[in-house]
């Protein structure tokens, strides 16, 4: 016998929690399935533990800077096990608060994996059945694994958060967010780091800023090896050699992180049988309203073909439920200007279009205004690393369609500019605004 609900959600990560909680707030009877801990990737294996590690890395960098500007300092040492314990306690607190909120909201949480058996019914391994006219698939994604010899000698991002000691020499394979963020963090925390990139570094970001970041990473001692495709790993877990496709050998490393993107959790949950369309990599295809190809089945978050970011999953879940439960027939989230930051050292951020995308869309109407500067603190310390800001504009009235920032503070300053860009921002607005001086943010107002 099937228990009946208004809304069934598979996955208690960013997207699933958002959909379930908003559904309950709007009065729906909600069932939420997940065999794993509450919070999904972001809370347990992604944004949150990563950001904690980024803060630790920042402190280590600041300590070096302190010496450069005249503090009497002695070398500092991070007790990884203690840091991990403190971080994990913080994360356990987040999970506890989620559990309490779900309980208070009256959401039925079933700690099991579920799969769809029809367009309105799911079943768990224990045989529990539930039905609803709306089923939201929010099952996320997992680190991509390669079928190459020795892959198991290395770690994926889930594993790196378990480390309780610093690797001496780590190889990071990949060129995306995870690869660059961990390359910078591990280096700041005292590891020797080789970043092995097969193709592009941070594809999708402004390439001039990416190259500036890559130069700064190399100057600080991170070895960035381009055009390096790894075809095998040899040795044992704490003494790994990587074999490249061109015959070259890299290592010996005492740790390897594979950071090769993510595989959507869309197989073995009954989607194929119901004819839910997916792309070649398994991402569920959704329209702007999170509809899949099958009525009654919806999808949000990393399992879909949309941007794999927590705020995107949250916004998608919320908009979908506004439509399904709240009765707002045209509810969808605005994905026209999704801001994003790579928590590198220094951070790199963007919102809107890159120069290349703007040229492809608007041709000769595009103008680009950029500036470089060395932040005040770096100048005092006698350092020369430059920050870069860039505006991509369109038309004679210079409507801003892209903002790109690299440098200390970029992570925090971008949000406000992203709101302005989404609402409609012209270069003249920035020129007319009164700056906050001296800050990194004012550099976007002072471009000529
Ligand atoms: C290392 C790392 C750092 C990141 N940093 C950032 C960042 O700084 N900022 C940012 O915006 N994004 C970041 N992300 C991306 C972000 O974590 C994801 O975009 C976000 O977690 C996606 O949420 P989701 O709900 O789609 O999936 P998830 O959070 O992955 O949740 C999916 C849930 O579904 C469950 N599940 C799977 N199959 C089933 C099933 N059959 N039945 C029931 N439940 C199931 C899983 O157990 C999981 O709990 C990072 C990712 C990683 C890996
Ligand atoms: N700060 C943030 O917001 C943040 C941080 C981490 C992750 N994320 C999100 O999570 C997603 C996943 O991050 P990611 O870094 O795992 O993926 P990614 O898609 O950003 O990068 C994957 C990288 O792996 C490379 N790659 C793929 N297959 C390969 C192979 N066989 N050999 C060598 N290289 C290969 C790709 O060329 C690419 O450089 C991101 O796209 C992003 O949306 C966001």
From TrEMBL:
Keyword Nucleotide-binding in annotation: no
> Domain Pyridine nucleotide-disulphide oxidoreductase dimerisation, which positions?
338-444
Q: What Enzyme Commission number does this protein have?
A: 1.8.1.7
Tell me the keywords, alphabetical order: Disulfide bond, FAD, Flavoprotein, Oxidoreductase, Redox-active center
* Domain FAD/NAD(P)-binding as annotated: residue spans: 5-317
Cofactors per UniProt? FAD
Q: Which NCBIfam families match?
A: PRK06116.1 (NF004776)
Q: Which family does it belong to?
A: Belongs to the class-I pyridine nucleotide-disulfide oxidoreductase family.
Give the protein name, as stated in the record. Glutathione-disulfide reductase
């Amino acid at each position: 016998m099937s228990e009946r609900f208004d809304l069934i959600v598979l996955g208690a990560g960013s997207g699933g929690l958002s959909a379930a909680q908003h559904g309950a707030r709007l009065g729906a009877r909600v069932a939420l399935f997940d065999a794993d801990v509450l919070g999904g990737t972001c809370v347990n294996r992604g944004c949150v533990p990563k950001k904690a590690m980024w803060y630790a890395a920042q402190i280590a960098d600041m300590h070096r800077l302190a010496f450069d500007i005249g503090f009497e300092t002695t070398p500092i040492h991070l007790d990884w096990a203690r840091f991990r314990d403190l971080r994990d306690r913080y994360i356990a607190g987040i999970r506890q608060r989620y559990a309490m909120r779900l309980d208070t909201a009256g959401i039925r949480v079933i700690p099991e994996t579920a799969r769809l058996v029809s367009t309105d019914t799911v079943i768990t391994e224990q045989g529990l059945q539930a039905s609803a006219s709306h089923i939201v698939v929010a099952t996320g994604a997992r680190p991509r694994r390669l079928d190459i010899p020795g892959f198991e000698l290395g770690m994926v991002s889930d594993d790196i958060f378990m480390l309780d000691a610093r690797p001496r020499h780590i190889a990071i394979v990949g060129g995306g967010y995870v690869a660059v963020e961990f390359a910078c963090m591990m280096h700041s925390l005292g590891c020797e780091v080789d970043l092995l990139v097969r193709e592009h570094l941070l594809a999708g970001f402004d390439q001039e800023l990416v190259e500036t970041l890559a130069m700064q990473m190399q100057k600080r001692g991170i070895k960035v090896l381009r055009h390096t495709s790894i075809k095998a790993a040899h040795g044992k877990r704490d003494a790994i050699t990587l074999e490249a496709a061109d015959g070259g050998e890299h290592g010996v490393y005492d740790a390897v992180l594979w950071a090769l993107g993510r595989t959507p959790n869309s197989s073995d949950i009954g989607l194929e049988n119901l004819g839910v369309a997916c792309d070649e990599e398994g991402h569920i295809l959704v329209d702007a309203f999170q509809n899949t190809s099958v009525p009654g089945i919806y999808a949000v978050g990393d399992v879909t073909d949309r941007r794999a970011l927590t705020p995107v999953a949250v916004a998608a879940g919320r908009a979908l439920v506004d439509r399904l439960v709240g009765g707002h027939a045209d509810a969808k989230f605005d994905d026209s200007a999704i801001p994003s930051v790579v928590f590198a050292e220094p951070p790199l951020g963007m919102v809107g279009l890159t120069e290349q995308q703007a040229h492809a869309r608007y041709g000769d109407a595009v103008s680009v205004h950029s500036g470089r500067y060395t932040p005040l603190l770096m100048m005092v310390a006698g350092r020369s690393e430059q920050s870069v800001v860039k505006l991509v504009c369109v038309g004679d009235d210079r409507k801003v369609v892209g903002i790109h920032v690299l440098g200390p503070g970029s992570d925090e300053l971008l949000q406000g500019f992203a709101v302005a860009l989404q609402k409609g921002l012209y270069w003249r607005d920035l020129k007319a605004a009164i700056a906050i001086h001296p800050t990194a943010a004012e550099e976007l107002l002072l471009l000529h």
